[in-house]
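Recall that a protein's primary structure is simply its ordered list of amino acids. Everything else, from secondary elements to tertiary packing, is in principle encoded there. The following example makes that idea concrete.
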Amino acid sequence: MNNPVLPDSPAPKQVLARHGKSFYWASKFLGIELADRAARLYQFCRYVDDLADGDLPDRQESLEDIRARLAGKELAAGPEIEAFIALANSNNIPLSAASELLDGMLSDQNPTAVADEAELLRYCHAVAGTVGLMMCRVLNCEEPRADSFAIDLGVAMQLTNISRDVLEDAKMGRRYLPASWANFTPAQIAKAGLGDEDTDCREQVAHGIARLLDLSEQYYASALLGIRLLPFRSRLSIAIALRVYRQIGWVLRRRNLAWWQGRVMVTGGEKALLSLRSLADLRPKKVPPHRTQLHQHLQGLAGVQ
């Protein structure tokens, strides 16, 4: 097995603090043990994501080998993968979810041009809904119903990611906006975003981003209901993560969806205010049945009922 060596291998919490600022802020409310587990899960996800987006010549082969190791093949894996497998074994994390995450990373090794909403949502499940499933186990959630809502949170966050990173993805030859919404090539989007003021492209892509954010709201609303199925110790942290990440979309809207102006950020003051608002999510409330319509395009995938 190829064991790619990425630039450095800092401690899990350092990885989280450096690359996942919104999640790092939210993890401060988990307590030491749960925050450590969450950071270890994030380190694994970040490792494979960096590998998938990096420029190593053998990255596809390395990702395939990691997927084979997760599927149970006796291959010599790097320390990051073995650390994750140990975490999975001790927390009952389904390796099928991790394998699907690798499928998503492998799909990114080819030029990406999503066709429609169904393909978009299945991709979001692969690279983020699966992370929601794994996080449920890390947080000691024993309520089976929580899986569906955890998937929704992952999907919502990935839709937000895509909305924020349209230009960055286009530079890498990827267009996650469905062709049915904005049928431009990644090269056209990158050109429009880097100085060629193609008004038609900019406007259609902005319209597509608005649709992405509208779609994400459906999944955020569902996830917010499901938070009450988590153990009490975890609810505030996940509510904060949800609200802070959701705010990225609101900041983008405040900027009139000017996606070509660079990545948007949530300020420290906004994070503090959203954290206070999240206290309201701790109030007892009956959780309704999950909206099956949200998973109509996800049948057959990990954790989908």
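The longest strand covers residues 112-113. The chain has a mean pLDDT of 90.
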